[in-house]
Amino acid sequence: MFKFFKDFVGVTVAGLNDLPYTIGEPYSSAWGSWLHHRGTSKDDGSPVSIFSLAGSNAQDGHLAAGRNGVKRLRAVRHPNILSFLHSTEIETFDGGSSKVTIYIVTEPAMPLSDKIKELGLEGAQRDEYYARGLHQIAKAVSFLNNDCKLIHGNVCLASVVVTQTLDWKLHAFDVLSEFDGSNEPSSTQMLVIIFILILL
């Protein structure tokens, strides 16, 4: 079963040294149980983002959701969705216990909350930036719902990151599922984003 998954989504089981990226300091926030790290390519030193998710065994529910997130992010391409670069899954053993960690490498980005604090925008400048960012996320959610027939079950502040060009992008697809007629898209998902922005 795991071999099928590995072949299907391109995840490899390898050692951390085999990862062609260097993992740096984590950001203070990330989506769900994921950690969001700064990183660099070992080939040319270019910046990347590295997301990691650890579980106590291969059947952990968080890991199952994380694997779904890897599969979805790898398959979906859109200007307002974070660009996937690489993924791997590593199992380490310490004494009698094992630990499984999933790594996703993407284009460089930082959490929206961190970028908002860093920019320190006020007044009309802040409002314009929020409106532009909200429009970008709305386009990503529309693409997922209407073009891909996928439903994003949880659009929240932590599932939005900001690239080096200050574009807002959606990621964190652990709870993304296919629309099959029985799981109607939530009409409140856009409102969730709006309320979050109002509270910032």
From TrEMBL:
Keywords: Kinase, Transferase. SUPFAM superfamilies: Protein kinase-like (PK-like) (SSF56112). The keyword Kinase applies. One of its GO terms (molecular function) is kinase activity. This is ARM repeat kinase family protein. The gene is 25484601.
